[in-house]
UniProtKB/TrEMBL annotation:
Listed name of the protein: Putative serine protease inhibitor
Signal peptide (residue range): none
Record-annotated Serpin domain positions: 2-132
Any one GO molecular-function label of the UniProt entry: serine-type endopeptidase inhibitor activity
Keywords attached to this entry: Protease inhibitor, Serine protease inhibitor
Domain of life according to the entry: Eukaryota
InterPro entries: Serpin_dom, Serpin_fam, Serpin_sf, Serpin_sf_1, Serpin_sf_2
Amino acid sequence: FLPVATRNRRFYPNGPDGPDAIDVPTMAKSGCMPYYLWQEENVRVLGVPYKQNVTMYIFLPLNATRANVRALQEKISAQTINDIVTKMKMKSVSLLLPQMHVSNSFSLKSALQQLGLYALFDKNTANLYRLLNVQRYSGDDSEDILEALQDTKENAIKLLLEENPECQVLEKQGVDRVTCLKDNCRAGDGFCVCCAETDDFRRRRRDTTMDFPDQMNSTVYVNEMLHKIDL
């Protein structure tokens, strides 16, 4: 559709004889498109091509009204559409179509969980606060996200040292990730690393924890993930 061809034209929600005709921005297009006359239902079917081999099929009853369109919806199924598409022939047409914006979205959460990605959506195991646009404890700019979020033992140790540069790192054996994080330790690649607890360290940790941004002490996880399509 050429933008210069779009202008206000009359639109008839209840057919040309209806009382509620209105002016709406209407697109115009001429060319060869798939066409079929569904004679059993007195319906014209037109295929409007889009990019990436996508086609929008328009079903327009002759002398269309709201009631006719609603009745037609009850008669259309996936099999009906497939049968009609196989019968369509290319025909030279001129199309006037009200300007529209079509969008749709669907959840990726269940699909990702089926692939084994559970921790991302679990507030007890997710550790996404480093995605926030904040500065590190040392005052430096945030690290590269992809590198910092790698689930490695090295990153877990690095995070401990950022929290306390004087940390004496030790590794806990046989501790799962959830328990590890609850113990104020850091987990990575199946390892649990902690700071050796000394009286001096406990005091410094209590003092410095109060200065950390609230975001650092909050659980950050993904509640929902949507994929949106605009046509």
